[in-house]
Amino acid sequence: MRIPITDKFLLKLYELVEKADDAYYSLTPRSMSDVIHPDMGRMRREYEKENARRGFKQFIKYLGEQGYIKVKSLEAVEGIILTPRGSKKALKARRRLREKKKRKDGMWIMVIFDIPENKKILREIFRTALVEMGYKQLQKSVWVCPYDVYEDTEEFIKVHKIIPCVKMFLIKELT
Fold it and tell me: Would you say the CATH fold of 98-171 matches that of 5-92?
């Protein structure tokens, strides 16, 4: 599957932040620029090659203008901060790239939701995400999936703050 360079970059940045958080909390305390800096150079070189027609600075500027990242100074070193919008786009890219594997236990995931009318756009975004994860619609607000996407679904629900509107179940079979 071909995925836009923007989505790839945001996903790599999101994964880098996850790794940096893990490293920051598991190692002895040191500055975030020490943790982030080595990977930033590698990421910069990787995306300069892939995106030769516009420079890395222009690419970073574009991502900032789109609201996906913010560039901040961290202890005399410039750092990139992923915005909530950038995180959502990165998670969407992760869902699209992930290989769909059936659950080992043979169970299906059932999602039932009732997202209010005043959040109609969010309801449509949720339906689109369900399709991308491999869900099939049983009824308007009842979806099922045989794939191992429980954590992805849960993460989407948390990120979009629709926990009270959604119920998830593991079921044995569809009859």
Answer: no
The domain segmentation of the chain, as residue ranges, is 5-92, 98-171
Q: Which numeric CATH code is attached to 5-92?
A: 1.10.10
Please report the pLDDT score of residue 175 as a whole number: 64
| pLDDT one-digit tens code per residue, 52-74 | 545 677 778 888 899 888 877 76
Would you give the end-to-end CA distance of the chain in angstroms?
Answer: 33
Q: Which amino acid, residue 58?
A: Q
pLDDT at position 29: 43
Q: What is the pLDDT of residues 31-51, one digit of tens each?
A: 454 455 656 666 666 666 665
Burial category of 125 from C-beta neighbours within 10 Å (exposed 0-12, middle 13-18, buried 19 and up): middle
Q: How many other CB atoms sit within 10 Å of the CB of residue 8?
A: 17
Distance CA 125, CA 113 (A): 13
The topology (CATH level 3) of 98-171 is Alpha-Beta Plaits (3.30.70)
- Cα separation, 3 vs 7, in Å, equals 7
Helix (H, G, I), strand (E, B) or coil at 6: helix
Place of tokens 């360079």: 5
